[in-house]
Amino acid sequence: LMIRRPPRSTLSSSSAASDVYKRQVSVCFVLWLTLGYVASYYITRPTPRDFADRDEIGGLPVQNLVLRAADGVRTSAWHAGSGGERAVILLHGITNDRRQGVRRAELYMRLGYDVLLPDFRGQGRSDPTLVTMGWNERKDAIAAFRYLRDLGYRRIGVHGISLGAAATAYALQEDPGFDFIVLESCYDTLESALNNRLERYRVPKAAAWPLRIFSQWRIGVSALRLRPVDYMSLCAMPALIIAGDNEQILRVEETMRLYDQCSAPYKKVHIFKGAGHARCDRDAPEDFRRVITEFLRYVEAAWDESGMIA
């Protein structure tokens, strides 16, 4: 029996092809990790903005403030009002700043509330720290609440938009004392928020694994904790949960999960027809005014029945 060995040239060609394949796989793997890191850097990077201060909001003069959170981070803010006993904190969304809340602030002011509009850390004119999807931003929400409480306000609510809504939900674990909350366009879990964005741009979910890993590493928080829906069971104050049916990066069923898990003695959910992400006030202005007004009137009636201010 004779065994014929392949020619030396054939063995060399096969080995060379294998080496090329291995190099290609290695390059693709490194590129995959690199793109994931770049994407994580992009979504967590500070987005400072400089802009002119406003002289007034809702016809009342604006006071410029610098607040300090419990961890020492400074946030810049506007405070406007008539010096009453009720106030609302307006918390903006990601890659935005306090100006996003001005239209909503004007509505609250017409309904008898003073307003406080801070820039979250890492955004606007606040300290340029990493953006943490609402986790550390909750400390800014609590700092704003304590500032108003120290001024003597007896009733303080929070209206959070997108990232601001998530920060409000995360703040519930510290029992901050909010008298009511409004969560607008809030993601239920970070996983959902990321997957919806990937789907929008037709990126396979598996391709985003490095993005998830590097993002958690950069902000120092596990994605398992970045789930606003898990904190809704801690909600003991009246809650209004709102979103649009045209959000694209937020599904109606995700908003409903927040509502279903909310333990508030009084809770309400409303889906605005035709409204995009964080645009309920612009895309459905009349309906938005009605829903906010009806919610506040219920809350105020409850305060009055308890013997507190109306």
Set out the fold topology:
Layout: H1 8-44, E1 47-48, E2 56-57, E3 60-68, E4 74-80, E5 86-91, H2 102-110, E6 114-118, E7 123-124, H3 137-151, E8 155-161, H4 163-171, E9 180-184, H5 190-200, H6 209-219, E10 239-244, H7 252-261, E11 267-272, H8 280-283, H9 285-305
Parallel strand pairs: 1-7, 5-6, 5-8, 8-9, 9-10, 10-11
Antiparallel strand pairs: 2-3, 3-4, 4-6
Helix pairs in contact: 1-6, 3-4
Features:
9-stranded mixed sheet; two-stranded parallel ribbon; 310 residues; alpha/beta
Q: What's the quick description here?
A:
It is built from nine helices and eleven strands.
Describe the overall structure.
With about 300 residues, the chain is an alpha/beta fold. It is about 40% helix and about 20% strand. The chain is built from nine helices and eleven strands. The chain has helices at about 10-45, 100-110, 135-150, 165-170, 190-200, 210-220, 250-260, 280-285, 285-305; strands at about 45-50, 55, 60-70, 75-80, 85-90, 115-120, 125, 155-160, 180-185, 240-245, 265-270. Strands 2-3-4-6-5-8-9-10-11 form a nine-stranded mixed sheet, with helices on both faces. Strands 1-7 form a two-stranded parallel sheet. β5, α2 and β6 form a beta-alpha-beta unit. α3 packs across α4. It is elongated. It starts with 7 loop residues before the first helix and ends in a 5-residue tail after the last helix. The mean pLDDT is about 95.
